[in-house]
Prior knowledge:
311 residues; alpha/beta; 6-stranded mixed β-sheet; 5-stranded mixed β-sheet; elongated
Amino acid sequence: MSATRYTYLGPEGTFTEAALRTLPEAATRELVPMVSVPAALDAVRGGQAAAALVPIENSVEGGVTATLDELATGEPLMIYREVLLPIAFALLVRPGTTLSDIKTVTGHPVAQPQVRNWLAAHLPDALWESAASNADGARLVQEGRFDAAFAGEFAAATYGLEPLVTEIHDAENAETRFVLVGRPARPAAPTGADKTSVVIWLDDDHPGALLEFLQEFSVRGVNLMLIQSRPTGAGIGNYCFCVDAEGHIAERRVGEALMGLKRIAPKVRFLGSYPRAGVTPAEVRALRAGTTDAEFTSAADWLARVQDGRA
């Protein structure tokens, strides 16, 4: 395995590359762009890279299904950390292009909902066609296959383009969450501001099945930050659920919630416990009474005394 190589969703000039370069260790790693999320993750599975940075959630469009599906299937991988990156698009064009010249535009499919209103107001007749990534859209403009691309302004120089319009976004404070993914290992120690990610499969479709899963978190005071259903591919009505929960697997409330899930679910895949981006322990909400590690330990000690006849 190459311990110094990180892959990412390429080509050069993507928001994923920009997010990766915010990590301190990126300065000492070989950063290799890949053509897709599956390709970036498969390089980790195959030992050609130590880790991969891929997008997993957008504040406007929601979960990035390609990443969620890849993490839920195939050889297991684990999330080591997350990165939040503010997202604003630039309209990149070949030098000399004006707005009136633009008949075709491109960008990543996740970008379109973030610029839809701007497009309707300024380029209502332009034809949109999706690209593999925003940077790949810029490359296609460079090659003359499209008139303009929505991408990061920083990609303009890489592809010999000009930012005709900058700071384009329909939603203020839009951001994308990226995750650094590697092979399974012991999770890092809790920081006090952590997140745990899992994938849960339904045993059978019956009334209250999802509620049974949710109660395993609720009764232990574990807050859920994301829950998204994804088809398993086994037929209509067969789903798994991608879940992000506050806390770390080393905390009793989280660990017991996962044990509860494992008792009632046919399959639970642990995707990692890792520090939350942009959050300090002081900013984490107070735990509900009865859900601290000390209270779990006290209750376990009480039970042991009762069983020994010492209560």
